[in-house]
Amino acid sequence: MPLDGLPTNRVPEADRRLAAARRERERRIEQQQRNDLSRARRAASKVFGVKPSKSSRKAATAMLTAGAVGLAAFTNPFGPSRPFGGTADTHEVFEDPTQSRLAAHKIGTSAEFKRALIEEEGVRYIVYRDVAGYPTVGVGHLIDPQDGLRVGDRVSKQQILEFLEIDLAEAERHVRELVGDLPLYQHEFDALVDLVYNVGPGNVAEDESPRLNAAIQARDYDAIAAELNYTHAAGQVARGLEFRSERREKMFSEASYEDPRESAARSTV
C-alpha cells in the first residue's frame, strides 16, 4: 500500500538522484575492474615469460602482484578494503579520492599501492624468522597463533593473498584512527597505510611519533610528509628503509608510486 498522499507512480527527486549516482558509480567500478584486470593480465604474462636469469624473488613478486591487482578488481576501487567474501555498499554515493580529499573511512588502498607494497616487502612462501625473530610469511605477514603455522611451513599463493588483504584492512583501520577527520587524497592515504604496515601501529602512536600526530592535528600536510621517514631497524640505519621512506614521501606529496631504486639506476646509466 502506498504512503498516504503519495501517488503510486511518483518517483521522488531524491530517489532519482540516488539511482543516477548508483548507475554512475557502477559504471566507474566496471571500468576500474576492466583496467585492473588488464594490468593483471599484463603482469601475469610477464611471470609466465620469465627468463631463466630472473630471480625467483622477482618472479614470485610479479605473480603475487598479478593476483593482488586482480583481487582489487572485485572490490570497491575507492572504498575500504574488505576481507574475502565482503560486498560493496551499493547505497554509497560514488566519490573519487584521486580528485578530491575525502574522509579516510571512504578510502581503501589502491591497486597501484598494492603493487608498490609487494615490491617493497617481497614475497615469501615459507615461514621464516624476521630480523626481530618473529615468524613471518607472505608479504611481511607476522604469524598469529590462529594461523596454525610454524617456521619451515609452506603456504599457497591464495593464503598469501588472504593474509595480505587481512593485514591491509588492519593497517587501513589504524590509519583511520590516526587521522581522525583529516581528509586525504588517495595517494596520501596509501602512503600512511604503507607507514603503518611497515613500522606497526604502535610506532605511529602519539607517544612514539609526537611530531607526526601534531602535524595531523594541525592539518599540515607538508609537515605530515616530513614525518614519514622511518629508516632504522634494530637500532641501525637500513638502506632498504631509506629507499622505502623516500618512496613513501613521494607517494604522499607527489602521488608518485615509482621505486626510487629504479630512478637511481637510470641516473647512473
Shape: globular
Give the amount of beta strand, in percent. Answer: 5-15%
CATH architecture term = Orthogonal Bundle
CATH topology: Lysozyme
- State the end-to-end CA separation: 75 Å
Share of helix among residues? 40-55%
Count of the separate structural domains: 1
Using the coordinates above, name the CATH class: Mainly Alpha
What structural category characterises the helix and strand content? mainly alpha
Could you give a short description of this structure?
It is built from 9 helices and 5 strands. It is mostly helical. Strand 1 and strand 2 form a beta hairpin.
Can you describe this structure?
With 269 residues, this protein is mainly α. It has a single domain, classed as Lysozyme, CATH 1.10.530. Helices cover 52% and strands 6% of the residues. The protein is built from nine helices and five strands; from the N terminus they run αααβββααααββαα. The strands form two sheets. A three-stranded antiparallel sheet has the order 1-2-3. Helix 2 (56-72) runs antiparallel to helix 3 (111-121), helix 4 (157-179) packs across helix 5 and helix 5 runs antiparallel to helix 8 (239-254). 30% of the residues are buried.
Summary tags:
mainly alpha, 5 strands, three-stranded antiparallel beta sheet, two-stranded antiparallel sheet, Lysozyme, disordered N terminus, 269 residues
